[in-house]
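quick one, two chains, predict together pls
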Amino acid sequence: MRMSSQTKGITKLLAAIVIVIIVVAAVAAWQAPSLFSQPATSPSPSPSANPSSSPAVTLPEMTLTVIGANGDQVVLHADDIAALDAYTENAGYKSSGGYIAAVGSYTGVPILTLCDLVGGITSTQTLTITASDGYSMVYTYDQANGNGFTTYDPVTGSEKEATQPMTMTANYLMDGAVLPSEQGPLRIGVLGPEGLLTEGHFWTKMVSKIEVTNNVRDWTVTVDSTGDTEPYSMDRQDWTADYNHFTLEWTDDNGNVWAGTALWRWVSWYNYNGGISNDTLDQGYSVKIISGDGYSATLEDTSVWLNDNIIVAGTLNGAVLSEPYWPLTIVGSDVTGQQKVKNIVEIQIVLNPSASSSASPSPSSSPAAPTTPTVTTTPAPTVAPTATPSPTATANPTSNPTAAPTATPSPSAAPSQYDLLITGTEQVTMSSTEFEAEVSQVSSSYTDSKDNVWTGTTLYRLVYWATTNGAITDAAISDGYVAKVIASDGTVLALNDSRVKENKDIFIANLVNGEAIDADSGPLRLTGDDLGGGKERLKCITEIQIIPMNRNITLTVTAANGTSVTLFANDLASIESITANGGTRSSSGKLSNYGAYTGVSMLTLLQPFGLTSSNTIKVTASDGYATTYTYGALSGEGAVAYDSSGNQVTASSLTMILGYQLDGASLAVDPGPLRSILVGPDGYYTTGSMSAKMVVAIEII
Amino acid sequence: MKKTYAAAAVIIAVVLLASTYFFVFNNMFNTQQQVLKVYCATSLEYPLAVVEEDFEKAYPDIDLQVQGHGTIQVIRHITELNQLIDVALAADYSLIPTMMYPTKMAGTDQSYGSYYIRFATNTMVLAYTNTSRYADEINADNWYSILSRPEVKLGFANPQLAALGYRALTTIQLAQDYYDEPTLFHDLITANMDPPINSIANDGNYTITVPDTQQPKGDKLTLRSSEIDLIALLESGYLDYSLIYLSNARQYGFGYVSLPDEINLGSAQYQSNYERVQVVYDHQRFATVNLDRTGETIYYGLTIPANAPNPELAEKFVEFLLAGQGKTDFDDCYHPVYSPAYTDNIQNVPANLQSLVTAEP
């Protein structure tokens, strides 16, 4: 049978259809398994699986609490978050099992933007991010800034260092779509133009809280006694101040370095601040260290006093203690296992029964020097051998054969009796007996490079003595002071109180190797381990001045050649001072700011910086106020003076000073701590424009 | 007429072929290959990849899907992320009772888990390659001193994330006493982390404190999430040595130093010695678990969660692992499976599996 051409055409068509269908069916069958298996092996949606990439996406309901380190808190909802500047880049993560997951384009708010809502984050802070299911992760400051992550290639999963900045974000979109509920509505990610992966555990899901946390927690430890005394609280800031000056370290058998301050300094701190008197302590006590769990250990005063081997430690290997040791733990080579009290919450001075009945909350004002049992009895073996000289050697030097030069004085022998002037607002003479009594109370020692052992009492103790013997009041130096040590040849060393306070390594020695200091250096010498060098170890000390000066004094002086130096209180105290009366008259005629100012002459101050008569002087205050003076104005040239009635008068002599005291008290931060003002023997007022308060900078122009 | 026949033939052909097409497609799509989800500690990924292949051969209608995570994360996926997992295998069996027993499934009084099967152990070894510094001289007597050399680079798993991490810290601390090197932990760990990981002695015991952030100081020490990354760094030569499990060292062909039983965490005989070291954490990472760990012998554990979607398939898998080809696969991968394995609560073990386990003493 022959087919027509039409029939042949139909047959061909049919054959073609059949072939097409078979091919389609075959392809379908071949593809089917992979279609099945793909969802199982690809946990992360591909971009094509998220077609909803429209930028106009409505965010789901969400609540994000952001808490700052200072406690500030904001609660953000979807609208708030959408209103913040968004950041979009690629990212993904690598799980601990090695899976590459969640690769895509993310949109979210940079973490730093969120932190800025509550005061930002600093390098000493960390970020704790918590999910709604309770999972939380802590991120470092570096990580919050996109640094410090291990990064991986998004294709191979191999480690690959980022070459472009990365940004840590709280994301609400992935590939343009909102995150699924088991991840979102917010999820942490680390985004960057290279699309690198980061470790999966940093990708906190379901974020509900972001908190900037200080690495250091605040604390207080109660210091009290068993007597009738007020409990005081030592807080972290107080302790840190002491720690910065009197750091002691102890390395345990396993190489761990503990650092803190000596336990005896806590007793001293309580005593110095008026918590307990010397008289009471002198009757004997023990120190009870109490832990937060109630455990306690008690150490006798004979083992505690001046013993730097019993340490109240607050850091371990350079970091703040963690539980169970936080905040403070007793350690040291003289601490037994049972005495290692952790988590200290209280330090209690347990008084002897007789002392308990006479305990007084105020420091003793008696200059008498009852010796503390610590030093009058045989020191316990645990006492640092250099800490306390033999009481018989120091309490009565005349009984020491080598200290009896009066019979046969040698040319170099120091006098057995001497006086030391202690000058505050009043001048008091401290006798050698009184000095030695203080040595018996607080003793310090220093071994020089020739192995000479110098012993005496701390400069700080003499300041304390001054406050209890009428030279100066505690109130006068409450804002700060400078201790100015003056030698017989006029040499001076001025020390800020921050360097003096509770520092046993700056002291006035009266003995060297157990004998009186010879006349070339003695009878008293400034020495100690915290002095900068021989130049500071002044010989033949005759006077100690305690000058009330605000400890916040900072003055930048810019010389005529453009160089600048910063001066502090002790620098100004080293310059000869002027005390004279002065005051100001406003343009309305009001007379004010009158009194006896103490300070340094501006001419004296500035001449070492190249001041000449051709210069002018620009004075700037901490509030931004600035004024200029001619060279002549520093000597009162052109100044208009007024008497106390406001009548214009002719002043015979005026001097512009940079004052740091008014009527014997340090200037407060406002109008001080430094004030320029014209003063003179007549005590006249001058125009207000000639005086600047809160001076922080002087420039020679 | 001919046109009519031709049209009819076309229609019939199309219908037949279309039917064939849809039959093929439907047949393929309706193949109900069941999915069995197994989450495991990453140190088990290697042998389980072999088991997966053999299990699917034995049960072609089951698609075994194995996912590795840090052990803590394995369990957290179940208890906190509410994922439906059929079998969980942990590198630290004790996390099963710690995390699963007290946690009730949402809306029920039933716990996520009520028994564990302790099925394998491991030991800590010091792995290295031929290119590691001092590879030609390291041995069981001098390894700690070689690690202490400044130029030697050492890798640990992150103790905040992986059981391997806190076990490595424990091993170093135990080595300190064993070799009488009192500053070994400080020199290797504490001094190389900022903030430091401290270890403090107390009457012969040690408390190691892991801070809330993990940052190595300098390039002596490298921390990674799990052995997967450590192995890659070791292979690449970036690391000289890493403390990992014996099974992984052998699986990946590393050289290794066998550590004494007193410190390798692999010998129950020295359990009391291991217990002298406790690792505590400064930061509560999870709502349901306190991570603090006391040193003990390494035991792997598994369980079928109470909300497993395919409990019967899960039982088949566990049986395959404990007594079938899976056990052989593990043996071949240098990670032997106990026979019998142990359980803490035999009455809660599925009946089909009870003959494969014995109650713990």
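Chain B touches chain A through 69 residues (CB under 8 Å).
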